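Let's inspect one such protein example.
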Amino acid sequence: METLHAVGVRTPRSDGASKATGSGVFAADVTLPGMLYGRIVRSPHARAVVESVDLSAAEKMGAICATYGDVPRQLFNPRLVSTEETTYKDWMVLSDRPNYVGEPVAVVAAETEQAAQEAAEAVKVMYRVLEPSFDSLESLKGDKVIHDSILLGDEKLKVENNVGCRMHVEQGDLAEGFAKADVVLEREYKTSRRYHAQLETKAVVCQPEPGGGMTIWCTTQTIHNTRILIHQIFGIPMNLINVKKTTLGGSFGSSIHTNILVPICVAISLKARRPVKIVYTREEDMHDHASFEMRFRIRAGAKKDGTFTACTLDMVMDMGAHQVQAYPLLSTVFGWWASFYKWSAFRYDGVAVYTNKVPSCAMRGYGNPQTSWAVESFVDEFAELLHMDPLELKLKNYVGLGDVFYGQGITVKSVIQSCGVEETLVRGAEMAGWRDRLPPGRKSGVLRRGLGMARSFHTSSAGSPTSGAVIDYTGAMVKVNEDGTVDVVTAIMDHGGGTYQALSKIAAEELGMPLENVSVVQSDTQTTVYDVSAHASRGVYAGGGAVLKVSKEVKEKLLSFAGKIMGEDPANLKIVPDLGLKQGVVLSQTHPEKRMTVGEVTSLARQRNMGSVAAIDSYRPTAGPPHFIAFFVEVEVDVETGVCRPIRVVSGADIGTVVNPDLAEGQIQGGFSMGWSMATLEDILYDPVTGDMANRGMLVDYKLPTAPDLPPNDDFKVFFAKTYEPTGPFGAKGMGEGSYNPVAGAVANAVYNAIGVRLYELPMTPERILAALRAKKGGA
């Protein structure tokens, strides 16, 4: 295999200094001359009708104010990743029928933040309060109507029993499959609701421009979809809307869609005719978004040898008060479940239900962490019924090389062309001492240790051979400057995990340049071609695929110019990095004395009017290959207090060619932290009387694990499978979401191995662990 000089090499982060010093410009850092500060007036009720709004006191204070009467009265969906005909719409910029505590009903803008806050508090809203619904199963009874009607594309739909959307998929003969089974198991699982806890709360600055335009700086994973949505709502021509990139302080899916404060800020800035800035407090951010709570019922049958013969999955999803991506998520949950194991025959029924909670949106893994926890807990228990090692059962049934993978749901599927499942499981088991673990019945004492494992995967983009119902393409411009340096211009966003570093490496590798000569330019919608969104672990695979495609075009042009200057056939030339010169060098393969630096070629090309060495193009992946991850987790459970802590972790990952080794390892460690928190700690609780969150702050009420709560580096081992993805840039696949997906399942199975009790609801808090132990003792 060819030796690579940039891809796969451990290098300092190009944005490391700005991260460490805080010099990166986030949306909240943007300040403009004449700027006003905005504050949002929010409903204190979970379900109500606004009967009147009195703005007089706020206006006397000098504030500019807007209500639902000042904004376009049209329904929309803030997420524009799916095709129009599969997009459900139920949002308004400002609402007169709020359906969750915190839903925006008005907005004010004033000269200072304090004045804006005082003006917001002066707005008087009269509500007719209605009884809310906080449980998805109760909501399905339809007694409390949350939405009368919604739109599907442009078609008006009546909402029945608070069901936002449904999905049914069936394949094979289920009756025959269950008849063949020697063992049948059915279990129910319930996940929690979680807050994304990204470092950066959401922020936006809007500046009206002469001629009716609008410039926007905002927290987002998609600058182009933000521009499209503002155009759709306000009718501003897209060439007059410019959404500028800012540094993104994490997201975990919370900004795949256009955040609601963006159109709110556009509305008030248009009315004020001045720039306006709105920044969420942490409490406001917690009232803005959450993960999806899911209930699963799984039933499966298998032969004595462990061959699955049939499986059904029924899933009820609590999406909160509005749809951000409910229908696509119903589809991906099907895809994750169907792509786990060879079920032979299967049926899936999913339903998304409205409740009067904060709207749910994508959270790292897009339904995969919830599905993986349920499936891997189920398969672990199934193995015990079959008297098989769970590892053996998984290896016997996994969907792998040559099989069909549903990357982002039923319409997005491709054939798996690279697979490291066996390596991650077998090698991981050896490193973790899997064969030496004791069964639960042989544990004693107050502190009991258990070893559990789980596997999962995620897609690398939403690409597929056919277009499907998901939009997935991106673009890039690569330009070689007259000094031999390179600009990469792309609309894709970096959440903070190192996507820009990977894109620089891919361009440097293809162009034969030193990595330090390549930089990703901070750009905007007026200087980039379309990118759908930084989601679906597509940054390296799809974004890198676009950069590689365009870099090939640039390389061809560069060698063509060099050939003319050097009097050589371009096919006889190659580019190699010269770290001493800090340049790429063009060499003749037959006449070694003929050599020029890339800077010399581009400089002469300018002087001879040959043109710029640049190219721009779009790229749509025709596959969305899975990256596979396995976790082996050892825990210690105190059976007197119920406290559980992680002792040791081994994780194996198949991500194809590892572009950024250090950052890839960091992703796995970060994924474990989030998965541990999901499994043992996080849950958003709602007050049944007020409808507000009971734990709505992070200082006391909503806790996350910190470094001392996790295993030290010496007890956290990571390895990468040796695979190569033929459709990926230099053989690479994605990995950001996959590193999170299997963790809760591995922890749940470890807890069972420690104490001999299975828990079917998350989080597995000390109280629930103790209750399960008491129930077991009482049953015994």
